[in-house]
Every structure is written in C-alpha cells, then in structure tokens.
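SAMPLE LOG
Freezer: B-3
Tube label: C17
Construct: single chain, 330 aa
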Amino acid sequence: MKRRSLIHTALALAAPVVLGGAVALPAWAQDKWPSKPINYVVPFPAGGTTDILARLIGQKLGPVLDTTVVVENRGGAGGSVGSEIASRAPADGYTLLGGTISSHAINVSLYPKLGYDPIKSFSPVALIGSNPVVLIVKADSPYKTLQDVLNAAKAKPKTVTSASAGNGTSQHMTLELLGFRSGTQFIHVPYKGSGPAIQDVIGGQVDMMFDTTVVAGPHIQSGKVRAIAVSSAKRLDSLPNVPTIAESGVPGFEVVSWQGIFVPAGVPKPIVDRLHAETMKILQTTEMQDRLKSLGMQPSSMTPDQVATFQKAEVEKWAQVIKAAGIKLE
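STRUCTURE (predicted):
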C-alpha cells in the first residue's frame, strides 16, 4: 500500500478522536479552558523517546491544568502520520503533538508529498530538550568499535544492516550521514518505532542501530546491547567510555536529536502561553532535570518564539544535508 493511502486510512480511523476544522476560540471558551481531557499525540509507537517524554510530562501536566492528558500513539512514516492527524485537529488547545527532529525538520525535505507543513501547520509550545544518538550493537556482536563496522561495510557493501524507528527519523538520517561521510553503504531497515527496532537488535535480527540515549540507555545499562559510538561532539557524562563518531574515524561528525511540543496553528496565544509556562515549570523541577539528564538529554528553556527560530534553522540544515547526500524517499 502506498504511503499516501496509509496516511489517509489512518486519518479516517482517527477522525472521531482528533479531526475537525481549525476555528478561532471565543473568549468565553478560553476562560474555561481546559474543560475536558487534552490529547497528546505521539507520532510514533509506544516505547520510543517521544512516547516516554509524553508520558513523563503528561502525568504532571494534567493535574496542574486540572484535567487529564491522554497520550495517543499514531505512528507511521517517520512521524508523518501522527503529525498530519494533529495538524487537522481543531485549534482549541485540546490537541498537543510530540514533535521531533524528524517530523518537524527532516521529513519535509525527505518526502515529496507531506500532508502538513512543519512550520505553517503548527505553533511551538516548548522544546523539551536535545540529545545525541548512540550506535548500539548486540551484546555479543563481533563489532566492538565503529571502525569494525566501517571496515565490514567497506569490505562487503550493503551487507551490514541498521534498524531505525522509521524513514526520516534521526536514527535513519544519522545512518545516512555516516554512510555519506565515510564512503560506506549500509542496509537501512525501518521499523514503526524504536521499541520493535531495538528488540531486533537485541535479538540479532539486525546488526546495529542508532537510537537516542533515552531509549538505548536502559538496554546499555542492562548489558543487552553494547554502545560503540555517540553522535555528539563530545563524550557523554552518562557514557564516558564510549567514544564519539568524530574521534572514531569520521572527523567533524555531529548529530543532535531534539524533542518538542507543538499545537495546531491558530491556537489562541493565551492558551499557548499557559501551556508553555506550565510545561517549563515541570521541566525546570529538580526531579525532571535529573530525569532528563539521566536519559542523556540536555533540557531546554527556549521560549516559543525561540523554538520557532531554531526549528526554521533545522529545516534548512537538513534540507542541505539531504540534498548533498542524494537521499530520496517515495
């Protein structure tokens, strides 16, 4: 089934939940907001970084707003399916979206036809934080260093397999950039989320995977997978013995993933401001700061306007990378 058909099917199934026309919210309705549960759309399956953060934030955001925050997983097409669903929701403050580097910076240059505009279709609420991705392999994998991986890929091109949470995700793009910068070719194996992908790395069905420290961290600590390189410019405090990709033979390499919260374009500014303020209070607590850092994330304190500027720069950066690397998806 073609991608557009999949998206249209998902939209049809989701219609009773989140679809509707974007309308201006009357002043009296703003005063009563929120008067019903808020849907937090996660455009990936359960178990991934976006899902974990949505549940951490949602369970604290609901009580302070005197309502319930319901997390809805709408995975598919590297975050595009869920993002399109959220973009069509009423602009009334009752739909949040967990936007990511893939759904809100990469996909617009990767897919020829996208059912939403990552900038025009949404208003940013907050940037939760950023984090690098880490290259992991099965615990007993013969690959112990990045050079082991590159040597194998160069000796037999398109034989080393690498999983990802889907086409266009930070995991996928990091792999493509590594191949481009190192002159190697890998087999990309996209999944519908990090959860099933990392399980196949653990089980040995695929050779390796780039994933965020949020998802990979617990599996590294448990010994189920081995970390062999990180995409940050410097080594991580949480993984001090794991070298960077740059120091492992690919100079200047750096990729940082990020996670944010968005609402459909047109949500009244007072509601966006309230959501931002309450989210920032949650993120700035010692408990949440420690939790994010333990997951390898660098917490953010950007305002919505700063997030918008940052996002535009990210869209432009990845457009250049995708064009230079000749990456195309249908």
